[in-house]
Structures are given as C-alpha cells and as structure tokens.
Amino acid sequence: MDSATPPFQEKNVPWGANNFAWGEFPSSFLAMALDNIETGMAALLLSVVASELAEQLDCPEDCDCHYFRINWVTDCSESNLTNIPFEGLDHNVYILNMIGNHLKEIGPFPEDIKVRTLQLADNQLTHIKNDTFSNLQYLVDIDLSGNNITTVDSHSFV
C-alpha cells in the first residue's frame, strides 16, 4: 500500500471527492457531473426561450395565455365572457379554452387562426351554424358538452 491509499482501502476505490487530485476523479463521476450541468443549462435555456416567446404572442384581456409543452394555450375559462375574444387572440393558438362562460352563439372564426383544440363546454349554446367552424382548418378536437344545443346545421363540421 502506498502513502496515497487510505488505510483499509484498496487502491483505485473512491473514498471521498476531497481525496482525489483533479486528474484522478473517476470518469463516471465526471460524466455524471457534466450531464447534470447540461440538463440544468437546457432547462434554463428552455425557460428563457418560452418566456421570450410568450411575451411576443397576443393574449386577449381576461384570459390567461401560456405554453403547455410546445403548444400556445389561451385559457378564457370561467371569465363571464359572452363572445369569443377574437381581437387579441393570437393566430397561433393551439388550445382555446372557453369552458364555463356565457356564450349563446359563436360567429365565424378568423381565417388565419390555427386552433386545434376548442373547448366550449358548459356555455349556453343552442345552435351550431354552417359557418361557425368553417375557417378552422386545423381543428382536431372540440368539446361542446354541457350546452343546450338543439340545432346543428347540416354542413357545420364539413
């Protein structure tokens, strides 16, 4: 046993980070430390980018807008709204949440809006017209539950 080896310890077995010179750290320890630094930097960078993008996108008054994963969400739920706030609504909105408002009817959406998920549950809708959703070329999912819909025009979802 040489003088650098602690008593009762075999050589090359780590027994504390303070007992290694920089060049003697096990490679697995260095790799783990670098992975943690990279993960932390990536999370910080993602947070800064999301914050910058959120400041650049429009959000209607009385709504909360944020990113969920990579999707822009406009949450206007339970805001006592009687109309969808098209003015101020960013055309890149992915999810539009209008649950629990006082919507009685919906006019046609603007042509350039890219909403994919439209949540209209628990409003006061009674009629879905042909042109209501005609401009929503990217629409994949819609929730109309909890309304009093009695009439749906024949080409409303074509």
Automatic annotation (TrEMBL):
Transmembrane segments: none
Protein topology in the membrane: Single-pass membrane protein
Cleaved signal peptide residues: none
Presence of keyword ATP-binding: no
Any one cellular-component term (Gene Ontology): voltage-gated potassium channel complex
Keyword terms, alphabetized: Cell membrane, Disulfide bond, Ion channel, Ion transport, Membrane, Signal, Transmembrane, Transmembrane helix, Transport
Keyword Membrane: yes
Localization: Cell membrane
Alphabetical list of Pfam families matching this protein: LRR_8
InterPro entries: KCNMA1_auxiliary, Leu-rich_rpt, LRR_dom_sf
PANTHER family per record: GH08155P, LRRNT DOMAIN-CONTAINING PROTEIN
Protein name: LRRNT domain-containing protein
Organism of origin: Parthenolecanium corni
